[in-house]
Design goal:
Number of helices of chain A: 15
Helix content of chain B: 25-40%
Shape of chain A: elongated
Oligomer: heterodimer
Largest interface: A-B, 26 and 34 residues
Radius of gyration of chain A: 29 Å
Number of strands of chain A: 4
Distance between the termini of chain B: 31 Å
Order of helices and strands of chain A: HHEHEHEEHHHHHHHHHHH
Radius of gyration of chain B: 18 Å
Structural class of chain B: alpha/beta
Shape of chain B: globular
Distance between the termini of chain A: 30 Å
Largest sheet of chain A: 4 strands, mixed
Number of helices of chain B: 9
Strand order of the largest sheet of chain B: 6-7-8-3-9-10
Amino acid sequence: MSSVGIVFRKEIREILRDRRTLIAIALAVLATPTVLFVISQVSTRTATQTYTVGYSGDIPAGLDVLFGATGLRLERVDDPAAAAKRQVDIGIVFTPAGIDEYYDPTRQSAQIADIRVQTILAKYDAAKIAASLQQKGVDPSILNPLPVNVHPLSSPVKAAGNSFLSFFLPYILITMSLTGGLSAALDTSAGERERRTLESLLLTPAPRSHVLVGKILAVSVISLTAALAAIASMLVALSQIQFGGREGSAFPVDLSPLAAIVMIWLAVLLAASFSSVTIALGTLARNFRQGQAYATPLYFITIFPASIVLFIPDFNPSLAYYLIPILNAVLVLRDAIVHSAVAWSSLIVTSASLLLLGALCFYAALRLFTREALLIRS
Amino acid sequence: MTDPAVKVDRLEKTLQTNKVLRGISFEAAAGEIFGLLGPNGAGKTTTLRVICTLLAPDAGSVGVLGHDTRMAPQEVRRRVGVVTAEFGVYPRLTARENIAYFAELSGVMDGELNRKVDAVIERLDMSSFARQRAESLSSGQKQKVAIARAIVHDPPVLMFDEPTSNLDVLASREIREFMVESKGRGKCVIFSTHVLHDAERLCDRITIIHQGRVVANGKTEEVRGKYRDLEDAFLSLVEAAT
């Protein structure tokens, strides 16, 4: 077996016996379904919850039925404005001249109740106007002189699901590619110094570049496993958990074959690059804790590009943007998920950029690994 | 003396801004224990690190069994085993896995791996803890693992850098016995220490270095000369060189 294989096998064996790494991967696998479950519970509760309307005066005929059908419970109170501060979610005073509505915008329940009341009142008004016009022999369609017929070219529900995925999937892929193997990377670099095994390792005839490649491969495999396991658990969770509580409200989360292939390819590139970076940083550090301190800025560096799709959903950059590592992976993955298509030019530039990043990081790690200062500092 | 196993010639080395070695020269032969003595900071560890190719010389040369450390570092590493006071081991690997890992990296082939690892485990009387994880071993047991991994590829040159400084009396005696046994097997044993009592008992020849220079070199009894013991000789030589 080559030196690379010997080091790889030993590192994998050690990593699999390291509780820190195993716990990190297990948490990554469990965290996403847990968060999604909590979100689904909250959204279900919000969608099915009944809000209380405190009112005074006489309710127009038929309006009470609409309130009941929309999850609004009517409760007669003496002073709706006062009651809307605490006692009920929204206050309404029915007068012959119209309606006075009182609500506290700082309360989320009041905001939701307000939206429901506005919707009901709009429908009630439209129905009343249409009935009056018909009584007078006027076609009610006169109120809608430019009718619009919407023809979605794909399922709006599926589009919502893709939009959700286009943010979460790159985010999880990137953060897990970094954090999934971080502990292993620091253990195999800074840890060698901390437990005083580095000198013995460098005394073997194995070329240092082979030793380094073996370590990077092992950490890459762990990062990749963590990232793909977290994504698989997210996809399973999304397919099982109902959002909104009513039938037909689950996200359709079918990842197209193209998106899956692109995702795996990018995951491989990211895992290799991040492994090289973290091992290089770990090689600089005297111990595990110092390595963690060095690696902390990486979280911010990676999370910002991963979040760009959330803040600028319609970001359509030129090809030059695909040269920026991590951001390019996010953009390519977004295109693959949302449009089920990837421009070859974008994919090639992205791959070249990430490969170059990985090569530079490997070179830096190798330079650090072969410096005499590495031993002197030990 | 026959052809030297290790030949150090006018070796110079500066670490950062500190000139640690200032023209060190000595030769060590197969079948002898060669003592490298000196006070702390004299340059003993740096000398050993240059011999085993961890550091490159700034000037001068080092040859191990005819291989220059600059020109053929990997050939040198194949022929050298090093034991230091810092016996770091991989805690999540068993003692046997630790040894096998270094054996494989040192070029021991698959076919003879198990035989060689088993042989060194038996030689160092490690069978009772060979399958325990290293994290659960005592200091003496870890030191045995460190020795085993250094000798599992059967190198002709063995270097011991303050090997007993972290060990108790029993474990220290086992190390000394191992060095004597290795000498009997025809190995070139280089023993770096500041424990002069050990050096006087074990070494056939010694070199004393102080502030990066050789202040005495020769057979142990020659260096001791007129003095009562090696310690007196050492103190006198170092004082004179300061």
